[in-house]
């Protein structure tokens, strides 16, 4: 009878130990699954945050392009209007400057809007539709052309371009 009792105790102990091991394995697997879910959620949140930051950067840059170009156009139009009767050649230079500024602003806006239309599945070409290589966006040193435009149209004075200085 003692042998039967010991045999039963061994079987029950083995079954209990197997049950504990299975429970621990299931808890460990559930913990891994939960960690993976949290990691995926964090990656999705990071992706959404990065996309939002990029949209905000593009919006700020687009605002800068439009605001600065419109300011220069307004100055040039004012000069053209002021000198139209007395100095038609200066008015003509002001109109040519307005045309150039407008074209540059439209080109920059198209570039920015093209970047914002990225669909996430393909890379945009490194060239424009006209086959020209894309250039990095200019910093303050790259806006020398903006600084020289009013003077080329015969404007004396300056316009504040914020972080880009005065022209």
Could you characterize the architecture of this molecule?
There is one protein chain. The chain has three helices and no strands. The protein has 167 residues and is mainly alpha-helical. The protein has one domain. α1 packs antiparallel against α2. The model is unreliable at 121-125 (pLDDT under 50).
> What would the average pLDDT be, to the nearest integer?
80
Number of strands: 0
Q: Biggest β-sheet: count, sense, barrel? A: none
Strand content: under 5%
Q: Domains counted in the coordinates: how many?
A: 1
What structural category arises from helix and sheet content? mainly alpha
Order of helices and strands: HHH
From the N-terminal CA to the C-terminal CA, the straight-line distance is 107 Å
Q: Which radius of gyration do the C-alpha atoms yield?
A: 34 Å
Runs with pLDDT <50, length 5+? 121-125
Q: Approximately how much helix is present in the residues?
A: over 70%
- How would the global form be characterised? rod-shaped
Number of H- or I-type helical stretches: 3
């Amino acid at each position: 009878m003692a042998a039967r009792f010991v045999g039963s105790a061994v079987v029950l102990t083995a079954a209990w130990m197997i049950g504990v091991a299975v429970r621990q394995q299931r808890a460990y697997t559930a913990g891994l699954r939960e960690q993976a879910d949290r990691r995926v959620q964090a990656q999705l949140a990071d992706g959404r945050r990065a996309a939002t930051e990029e949209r905000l950067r593009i919006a700020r840059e687009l605002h800068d392009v439009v605001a600065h170009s419109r300011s220069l156009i307004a100055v040039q139009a004012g000069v053209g209007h002021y000198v139209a009767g007395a100095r038609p050649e200066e008015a003509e230079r002001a109109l040519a400057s307005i045309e150039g500024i407008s074209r540059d602003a439209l080109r920059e806006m198209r570039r920015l809007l093209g970047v914002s239309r990225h669909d996430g599945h393909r890379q945009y070409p490194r060239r424009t539709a006209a086959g020209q290589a894309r250039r990095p966006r200019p910093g303050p040193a790259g806006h020398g052309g903006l600084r020289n435009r009013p003077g080329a149209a015969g404007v004396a004075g300056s316009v504040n371009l914020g972080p880009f200085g005065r022209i």
